Amino acid sequence: MKTVATELALPGVRLLELETHEDHRGFFYESYSRRTFDDLGLDLEFVQDNHSRSREGVVRGLHYQGPSGAQWRLVRCTVGEVHDVVVDLEVDSPTFGQWLAVRLSAENRSQLLVPPSYAHGFAVVSEVAEVQYKCTGLHRPDAERALAHDDPELAIAWPVERPLTSAKDAGAPSFAAYRADPDFGPGWSEHRSPRP
Does the annotation count 63 as an active-site position? Predict the structure, then answer.
């Protein structure tokens, strides 16, 4: 089955659009194929799958794991729709501190491939949404990191008026704090493009 991978405005971030077969019974598609990733030059080995369910107005993130637990993430929405956001955290990147957003939904079946040096989060814009993502690294509590989703310096345009967040996310550090002590310093550009 054919998958189209488009590199977006931030280095290494790719939107994957998957071929879907539909008929009177419903639809079928390969949500992940190692062969397809090899064909696209994406040499990644996923070791953990995560699944979340959230109600409308929830904002999860911005999350990432520091270098000791760095992981690529392949994100998709299988129920409902989310406004999915990534932020470039690599200090020597020309797009450091910039963000982009895409809509992921059960209807469009698109997936977002997020490099390790990006924070990731999403806002639920449907009544409910389920987000699933594959990771190349296992979850490590000691490597957990977060940024404030409402940081004024980042100025992310979230499509929800009163975001519902966890207490942990509500207390996440500012982008200024990250700049003062960054996790992804010089040399991390090599991790943006998986090598065959």
Answer: yes
Q: Among residues 83, 118, 120, 133, which one is catalytic?
A: 133
Residue labelled with tokens 């989310």: 82
Q: Which of the following is catalytic: 63, 83, 120, 149? A: 63
Residue ranges of the domains in the chain?
48-187
Looking at domain 48-187, which of 2.60.120.10, 2.60.40.10, 1.20.1260.10, 3.50.50.60 is its CATH number? 2.60.120.10
Is 21 tagged catalytic?
no
Q: What is the pLDDT along the chain (196 residues), one digit of tens a residue?
A: 688 989 999 999 999 998 888 889 988 988 898 999 899 999 999 999 999 999 999 999 999 999 999 999 999 999 999 999 999 999 999 999 999 999 999 999 999 999 999 999 999 999 999 999 999 999 999 999 999 999 999 999 999 999 999 999 999 999 999 999 999 987 766 555 554 3
